[in-house]
Design goal:
With 119 residues, the protein is an all-beta fold. The protein has no helices and eleven strands. 28% of the residues are buried.
Length: 119
């Protein structure tokens, strides 16, 4: 069973930045898809950003329209860690952020890290 631990959340003012990390208990190289999702109070969980391995073994990125140009997803295979760099944060980015890794049609979720954007 893969264990995922998110970190890096916290309170930040509008316009600020945070970097979220998702540390996996095993190598992330074997996962075909990785991503970040978020769930705001009273709302459904939504996709933020994904990394998906293509047929040529390169990873394709995909972003929600609401974060495109502000957030960046990346990975470090050597550290078994997935990242989400969040810039120009807005109050509407406030949510619990979850990382997801997918392998062989099985999803593995972290427990989430809270991001609060407020002045």
């Amino acid at each position: 069973q893969v264990q995922l631990v998110e970190s890096g959340g916290g309170l930040v003012q509008p316009g600020g930045s945070l970097r979220l990390s998702c540390a996996a208990s095993e190598t992330i190289f074997s996962f075909n898809a990785m991503g970040w999702y978020r769930q705001a109070p009273g709302k459904q969980r939504e996709l933020v950003a994904t990394l998906t391995r293509g047929s040529n073994s390169y990873y394709n990125t995909n972003y929600a329209i609401s974060v495109k140009g502000r957030f960046a997803i990346s990975r470090n295979n050597a550290k078994n860690t997935l990242y989400l760099q969040m810039n120009s944060l807005k109050p509407e980015d406030t949510a619990v952020y979850y990382c997801l890794l997918n392998r062989d049609a099985t999803d593995y979720w972290g427990n989430g890290t809270l991001v609060t954007v407020s002045s």
